[in-house]
Amino acid sequence: MYLLSLIIILSYIVGSIPTGLLVGRWLGGTDIRRHGSGNIGSTNVMRTLGWKLGLLVQAGDIAKGLFAVLVIARLHYGDFPFNNRTPFDDITVVQIIAGIAAVSGHIFSVFLNFRGGKGINTAAGMLVGIAPIDISIALIVFLLVLVSTGYVSLGSLSAATAFPTTLFIRFNVFHVDIPSYHTLIIFSIATSLLLFYAHRSNIKRLLNGSESRFNRLKVLGRKAGSSMRMFFF
Average of pLDDT values for 45-72? Predict the structure, then answer.
């Protein structure tokens, strides 16, 4: 039990590292929380400091989830501290626990008085290590929604919905053999609900029409934005 507790604590601390805040201060010379939406996530960094630093923050946040699942979880060895009633092997259960701890750390960072980002990138990193096919489909959904609406938050929420939906359709409609499906679908729904909770303020702004958006996908600057307008519009 001691080792599992250590894994949870380490994963939470790694997830709590405020990548956006650190990049903003070290490379952008500013506190990102004082600009735009005030969020430390990659979207606000991209809007405020440019796409290069935004992508750097995004990569860092994704890496936190991956590190928890692929590195910290591997610290586990020996017998499981409780009876594993899931069809997963013990290490996969530890990976799920470590991943959720990392996402929780990003949303409720111990370094920021238990406030933080929205958790999408860290969750994506976690899920790449656990369910790469389903998270890939969710990523495609995210990009399609972003391209068609310009709303990063709506794309993120759509991806959070697409992940458990993809699992459900692949297993129940196409009869794909997904190991430990029944446990994985519950885990995926729980993760999606956590992400929806983190986006509750965005949902309110989407409903009242005040949510910020990238104007015609000016994600990579004016030149890229112009090219995208020519292609999509």
Answer: 95
